[in-house]
Every structure is written in structure tokens, then in C-alpha cells.
Amino acid sequence: MPMSSISGNDSYPYPVARIGIIGGGQLGRMMVKAAKRIGCTCVVLDPLRNSPAGQVSGHQIVGDYHDPGALRELAAASDVVTFDIEDIDTATLIELSRAGHAIFPCPGLLADIQDKLRQKDVLAEAGIPSAEYVAADAPTAEAFAAFGYPLVQKARRGGYDGRGVQIMHTPADFARHLPVPSLIERFIPAEKELAVMVARGQDGQTRCYPPVEMCFRKGENILDMLLVPARVPEQTAAAARRLAIETVEALAGVGIFGIEMFLTADGSLLVNEVAPRTHNSGHYTIEACVTDQFEQHLRAITGLPLGAPDLLTPAAMINLLGEPGYNGRPVIRGLRAALAIPGVSVHLYGKATTRAHRKMGHVTVLDQDVERAREKAERVRALIRIIGEEKE
């Protein structure tokens, strides 16, 4: 089905669209579920047979994200292609886009965001405020010292969930540096870390979700708890929404984007990173918003009208991570007790094996008061443990 038949009228043969998803993880899994609600079917590309997204899509191509043949097969089976990860062969996607295949967000934008140095350059050229930075393609102690401590080293490619990032406070920390092409940027002693999800349609229309407050596991750079609405003044929340929209408009992106920000002590906002896809900080939208981030993304890439992003109720969200010291088949402890708490929704990702700190699921807690939601989430975190059948 050509894209014009999706977005050009108000009559849709079923399926409304065939969505090709590069990546079969939890983001793809939740996207497939949203697609089924609005009459779309999905084909998933993932190297892991019976991937979390493949389990619910019913159609999976088993192949690597950097395999040109697999990417072409996916494009041929789809009306529009999207992705739930960033480590993809963009050269092949660019060729497919030029050949007329609909791919959103566009592969050129993905190529810019894949490389954290290029991402920073693009934001700087657009006038988007972010931390001071320089390239460090050959990291040396002298270059780091010249830039000045404290600093943050980020690998240009391949980092996610805190991997590929080193925070260094003194020259002695250089011993922990990443021996890969990188950038170094000024360490920002943030008062809070915020994130804003923004959707932009093919027609340039945008919808912005409320800013959320992110709390990270100390020393791990993995999101531990999220609170929405963020506990900031309304003028700060409004400024965060404006900055997030400006960022996505500067990128001319189509789809949904996660804009991570630092809020400094003087009330300034700096963009940290951009995720050109559904994002961990938007999972709460499934229960707490009129239109969740997954359906919103699909609406954007298929040319359907964007949905209302309004927050229905305050919420807290925690990630469920694999317990250190275990691996193998997951065993969930404390599930009954957690589900007995009012307002708790548990999402398990269908991963066949667990390991330390692997994302195995998440829990969203709703309450009319964000502090009560936070307290309930703390109780859930103490109750649920995901261990493995094999002890290390």
C-alpha cells in the first residue's frame, strides 16, 4: 500500500498500514500492541528468534540490523518502516528511502543522532542550548586536562542505558576512560533531570507531553524512577515543553522523540540527548495519558491525526531490572503483593533470560497525588525482584 493511500483520504482497507519495525525489544513489543489497536499489522526485524516484539507481532524476520538484505526484505513487506533502536545500518536505509520507501524518522536524521558528536553539532547549529563540548576522537589525559574537570566522556557510537558514558571528577579518573572515539562535555551539576516526549507529524504538527522527572540509580546511569508531572514550577515546565518542541522542529523529525534535559540551579534548561524513537521516559503514558507514546508514534508515521497527549492522572514509574547474581530463565518474586496495591500496572517484556541490570519490565503506579504515587512505587520496588533460575 503506498503511503498516499494511508494519509490522503479517510477510507482505509484493512490493515490500515503494514508497519515494519527494526528492533524486537520491549519498545517494539509495546508498539506492536498499539498498532493492533488502530488496525495496523507489524513485521519485526530482530536477530533473536521469538523476540519480545516478534512474540506479539506474529511475523518476524530473523536478521541483523546491519544486514542490507534483511532491511530490504523488511521494507518490501511494509508500507512504512520505523525502529525501536538506533544502532542500525543507516546507509541501506538511506538507499531505501531514496528508492521511495517510507521510513520515519528519516534515515539521515537517525545517522546524525547515532553519532553523539554529530548530534551535538546539529543541536548547536540550531541554537539549542546544551553543555559545552569538544571532540575527543583519540582520548588523551592531556586533552581531558586541557578541557578541564569535572567532565563527561561519551562514546560517539553505540552507547545506551548508561553504557558508553564515563563521568570524571578529577584527573585520576582518566584511568577509567573509554578508549574509543568520543566527545567530552562539561559536567552539569543538575538540580533535576527532566525528559519531554514530543510527537511531530508528517504535516509538521506537534503534540507535547508533560515534562517528567527522572531519578537514576547512583553510579549506573539507568533510570530508576520517573515522576509525572515533574516537581518543578509551572514556568519551568512550560519552558521545558517549548525547548523540546523547538528541538524536534529543528531536527524536522517525524515520529515521537524523547528529549532529555538538565535543569540547573539557576533555572536554566540544557538539552542532554535526543532519542528519535519511543523512550523509557514515556512508558507511563500507556496508563496515564489520553494517547500513549506508542500509538502517537504510529499516528505520526502513518499520517493519521496526532492524539491528545493530556495527562489523566499523576504517575510514578519504575524499571524492573534483572537481579545481580542471577541469570537464565526469569523468576518473578513479589508479583501478587505488588498487584494488590491500588493503581499498580505491571508490564513484563517477555525476555527469555535475565541477567544483572537487564530491563525485564516496568511498573506504572497511578494516584491523584504524585507523592503518593512515588511512595507506592517505592513499595513495589521493594516487593518485586526478578531473579534467574541459575545463580552465578
- Percent strand equals 25-35%
Main sheet makeup:
9 strands, antiparallel
The structural domain count equals 3
Number of DSSP strand runs: 20
Mean pLDDT value: 95
Q: Can you put this structure into words, describing what you see?
A:
- Helix content is 30%, strand content 29%.
- It has 392 residues and is an alpha+beta fold.
- Helix 3 links the parallel strand 2 and strand 3 (60-62).
- It is globular and about 60 Å long.
- The model is unreliable at 1-7 (pLDDT under 50).
Produce a short descriptive summary.
The chain has 392 residues and is an alpha+beta fold.
Task: Tell me the layout of helices and strands.
Elements: H1 3-7, E1 18-22, H2 26-37, E2 41-46, H3 52-57, E3 60-62, H4 68-76, E4 80-83, H5 90-98, E5 102-103, H6 107-114, H7 116-125, E6 133-136, H8 141-147, E7 151-155, E8 165-168, E9 182-186, E10 192-200, E11 206-208, E12 212-216, E13 223-228, H9 234-251, E14 255-263, E15 269-275, H10 285-288, H11 293-302, E16 315-321, E17 326-333, H12 335-339, E18 344-348, E19 359-366, H13 370-383, E20 385-391
Parallel strand pairs: 1-2, 1-4, 2-3, 4-5
Antiparallel strand pairs: 6-9, 7-8, 7-9, 10-11, 10-12, 10-14, 12-13, 13-16, 14-15, 16-19, 17-20, 18-19
Helix pairs in contact: 2-11, 5-6
What features would you highlight for this structure?
single chain; 392 residues; alpha+beta; Rossmann fold; Dna Ligase, domain 1; D-amino Acid Aminotransferase, Chain A, domain 1; 9-stranded antiparallel β-sheet; 5-stranded parallel β-sheet; 13 helices; globular; disordered N terminus
